[in-house]
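Researcher: We plan to redesign the surface later, but first we want a full-length starting point. Tokens attached.
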């Protein structure tokens, strides 16, 4: 009699703005994980994010080749979801409509747009299904937060949803509180930067850095003086695609310091680079403003402020924020992300029939606007 090995291996793929993270889960546990940080020089070879697919896939295949599992043990593949149309939270099966919208970067360019395609390619290799979980476009904004200030333009959410929610749940549990009944501000400080007010389990407001809101980040512009920006767009005759690229991936620390790595920038400061210090301080200053704004959204009733993402490893970033924001609430630092675990759990909830699998339908909008249009 032939013995069939148990299918209990899930491969998790998470393309970030400046890194690719890959993990292997077996029988409920993460047994291997690798983070590859990509330099500006490496990423600059590609005109569009979607063109990075083969480059990122190579890293995935190298990781998989180093792991000890057989193809017949693979149960499913999870990828970080991309900038789809605004959708409810949940686990979505990768389908053609999703891949088409992401390949066309209908909403905008973003590294996470690669997640579904990479996951599907790896899933095909093992003859299993691919899923994405709680993509960055999960939109729980409260009605007042949607108003922009100009009729015809509405605000929409884009955030590190997976990590913000996972960190909030974890930190609140250590405080004896639940996510569903608490008020939290989470600042994810990575290649992009998203800072949101969470109230009773929902992300009710926060910045959409992809569309040019909030603090500048390693790559993103954040909010700009609009008249000067529009004058630049007109003077340089920029197309909408060029504007989106400029705001989301060619601004922020990259534009001031020609670097997207906060780790490098902290090292430059340690060697006496005053310019690097000035612009890192500027980013920290803007983060502080955004967190205080979210405290206003929550009427100052904040259980905890959480600083997370790769840059939360840098004390140069977290120490001033902990000091300056202590008047609002305790400031807890949780460096890195829990996205890999959250992706795995999302897929397992569907495979264990605890939650229905969601089906993505094509983004019917014909106007190529920002993440919300
Ligand atoms: N040990 C460290 N010390 C200081 N900074 C670090 C450290 N590790 C990572 N970083 C910084 O964290 C940033 C990347 O964070 P993260 O991995 O959360 O983002 P990402 O996945 O590339 O992008 P995103 O999630 O926004 O799409 C980089 O600027 C990197 O230099
Ligand atoms: C993940 C969406 C937010 C950002 O990257 O700026």
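Model: Full-length starting sequence:
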């Amino acid at each position: 009699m032939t013995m069939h090995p148990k299918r209990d291996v899930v491969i998790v793929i998470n393309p970030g703005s400046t890194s690719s993270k890959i993990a292997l889960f077996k029988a409920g546990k993460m047994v291997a994980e690798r983070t590859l940080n990509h330099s500006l020089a490496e990423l600059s070879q590609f005109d569009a994010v979607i063109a990075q697919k083969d480059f990122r896939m190579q890293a995935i295949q190298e990781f998989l080749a180093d792991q000890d599992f057989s193809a017949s043990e693979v149960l499913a593949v999870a990828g970080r979801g991309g900038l789809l149309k605004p959708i409810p939270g949940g686990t979505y099966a990768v389908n053609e409509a999703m891949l088409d919208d992401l390949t066309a970067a209908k909403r905008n360019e973003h590294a996470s747009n690669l997640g579904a395609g990479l996951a599907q390619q790896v899933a095909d290799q093992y003859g299993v299904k691919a899923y994405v979980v709680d993509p960055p476009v999960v939109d729980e904004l409260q009605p007042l937060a949607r108003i922009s200030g100009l009729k015809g333009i509405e605000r929409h959410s884009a955030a590190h949803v997976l990590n913000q929610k996972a960190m909030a749940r974890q930190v609140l549990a250590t405080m004896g509180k639940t996510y569903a009944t608490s008020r939290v501000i989470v600042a994810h400080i990575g290649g992009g930067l998203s800072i949101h007010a969470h109230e009773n389990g929902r992300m009710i407001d926060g910045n959409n850095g992809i569309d040019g809101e909030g603090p500048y980040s390693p790559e993103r512009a954040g909010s700009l003086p609009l008249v000067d920006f529009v004058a630049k767009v007109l003077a340089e005759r920029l197309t909408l695609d060029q504007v989106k690229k400029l705001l989301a991936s060619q601004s922020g620390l990259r534009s001031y310091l020609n670097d997207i790595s906060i780790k490098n920038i902290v090292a430059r400061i340690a060697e006496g680079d005053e310019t690097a210090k000035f612009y890192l301080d500027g980013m920290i200053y803007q983060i502080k403003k955004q967190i205080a704004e979210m405290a206003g959204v929550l009427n100052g009733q904040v259980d905890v402020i959480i600083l997370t993402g790769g840059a939360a490893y840098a004390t140069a970033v977290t120490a001033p924020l902990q000091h300056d924001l202590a008047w609002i609430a305790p400031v807890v630092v949780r460096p890195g992300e829990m996205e890999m675990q959250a992706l795995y759990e999302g897929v397992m909830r569907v495979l264990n029939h605890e939650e229905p699998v969601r089906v993505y339908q094509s983004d019917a909008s014909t106007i190529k606007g920002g993440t919300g249009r």
